[in-house]
Structures are given as structure tokens and as C-alpha cells.
Design a protein that fits this description.
Helix content is 24%, strand content 28%. It is elongated and about 55 Å long. It folds into 2 domains: 73 residues, Gyrase A, domain 2 (2-Layer Sandwich), CATH 3.30.1360.40; 145 residues, Cyclophilin-like (Cyclophilin). Helix 1 packs across helix 2. The strands form 3 sheets. Strands 5-13-6-7-10-9-12 form a 7-stranded mixed β-sheet. Strands 1-2-4-3 form a 4-stranded antiparallel β-sheet, with helices on one face. The longest helix has 15 residues. With 234 residues, it is α+β, with helices and mostly antiparallel strands.
């Protein structure tokens, strides 16, 4: 770990802890998050964790930039990683099917694996939630099997159904709401990923882990899933 502090705005600093995305980063990111929240206290406006960085937005009427930097330095002194497994583990049921996951064939062709093996590999791993962004409740997770890593679509779709599960490079995610998107879609989950009535709104938070569980069409419908084909929703 090689911490650096970068200026984002007059009242915002970026704490860069790592240069490379890795699952092993997360215990350190969580420990730093906790230290920073405690250190800044009521002067903290927002704290946004990502794969390798923490963005610290502070109240400029309460702290000078120099004081903010001092608090960051203090928070990172003798930092120790949090214990693995400190976040929640979520199991998301997924109906993997070409009608809702049109890039299943593309991933099969690129990897040289049968569609069934693509599904098995995607659902076999426990993924780390690295960050939230793009849309409310959209959790960036990783890292997927290298054979399944696939670039984003050259032309993003104008409309992606809520619950759509996709892959972009070595990341995977599920769309919480209807939105545009360029990820490779492989299935759909009935899980409610964003809820204004839920504490924190998002089902998942950085530091949580996620497993995707393959379910039948009947079970998907039973759980409240929408099986409208992607083309019909465009």
C-alpha cells in the first residue's frame, strides 16, 4: 500500500491507497473508511470508496485543507486491514437465458466454453462489492474468471431492464433500475437492488460479497422476476 493524497476540489481530497484493482484491497479500504469517518466526524460531508481510492468531501467551514490532510494522515497511521468476511454475503438468484442475457453466446464464443460452463463459472465465484455508482444501487463487483472477461459493447443499449446481470472486463454487476448500459448481459435477477425504504437504499454495500445462484424460469417467476425479453422492452 502506497497512500497518496490528491486534490479533487477545494473541499474534496482523494486518498489513493492502491494502483491496481484486487480483491485483497478491500480489507484495507474498509479499515481506512472507518478511520476516516471517525477522524472527520461531523466535518465529513461524504466519503466515497472505490476500487483503489477513497474520496473525502469535507466541510470547508469546519476544516482548512491543511487540517483535512492532517486528519487523513492520522487516520492512515498504523492502519491495519479489517478481518475478512466483515460485510454481508448476498445470494442473488439469476435466470440465465438468451432472452434476457443475449451476450451468453458471445461469451461462449470468446471463451471457447459451452454456454452451460459460462453460467457455471459465473455462478461459482463469490464476488467482492468494490463500489457503488453509475446508478443508485449499482454495485461494481469482481473479479470474474479471466475466461469470462469481455469488453463493454461498442454501442451501449438505450434501455436495459432492471435486474439484468452483466459482465464488463473482469467486473460483474446487476442493473438496479431501467437504464442505458453497455455491459454484456447474461441473465436477470428478481432481487430488489435499490429501495428508497431500505436503510442505505442499496441492497449491497462496499465490503459485502455476492454469489449468483442459477435458478429455473419457474423459480425466477415465483420470486417475482420479469421475463419480458430484452428486445420487447427496448
Amino acid at each position: 500500500m502506497n497512500p497518496r493524497i490528491e486534490v479533487v476540489a477545494i473541499d474534496c481530497l482523494m486518498v489513493r491507497l492502491f494502483d491496481v484493482i484486487a480483491e485483497a484491497n478491500m480489507p484495507w479500504m474498509l479499515a481506512a473508511t472507518e478511520r476516516l469517518r471517525h477522524g472527520f466526524g461531523p466535518a465529513l460531508v461524504d466519503l466515497v470508496p472505490s476500487y483503489t481510492t477513497l474520496m473525502v468531501h469535507y466541510d470547508l467551514t469546519a476544516l482548512t485543507p491543511a487540517q483535512a490532510r492532517a486528519l487523513i494522515d492520522q487516520a492512515l497511521t498504523d492502519l491495519q486491514p479489517q478481518a475478512q468476511g466483515s460485510g454481508q454475503c448476498h445470494v442473488l438468484p439469476v435466470w440465465y437465458d438468451l432472452s434476457v442475457g443475449p451476450e451468453l453466446n458471445l461469451l461462449s464464443q470468446r471463451s471457447g466454453l459451452a454456454v452451460e460452463e459460462v453460467i457455471r463459472r459465473h455462478s461459482a465465484h463469490e464476488y467482492q462489492v468494490f463500489a457503488l455508482g453509475f446508478a443508485p444501487g449499482f454495485a461494481f463487483m469482481g473479479l470474474v474468471d479471466e475466461l469470462l472477461a469481455t469488453p463493454r459493447l461498442n454501442t451501449p443499449r438505450k434501455r436495459v431492464a432492471a435486474g439484468s446481470v452483466g459482465i464488463a472486463e473482469r467486473q460483474t454487476a446487476a442493473y438496479p433500475v431501467v437504464s442505458p448500459g453497455g455491459w454484456n448481459l447474461i441473465g436477470r435477477t428478481p432481487a430488489k437492488l435499490f429501495d428508497r425504504e431500505r436503510d442505505g437504499y442499496s441492497l449491497m454495500q462496499p465490503g459485502d460479497t455476492v454469489r449468483f445462484a442459477s435458478v429455473s424460469h419457474a423459480e425466477f417467476i415465483h420470486l417475482g422476476g420479469d421475463d419480458t425479453p430484452l428486445e420487447a422492452q427496448a
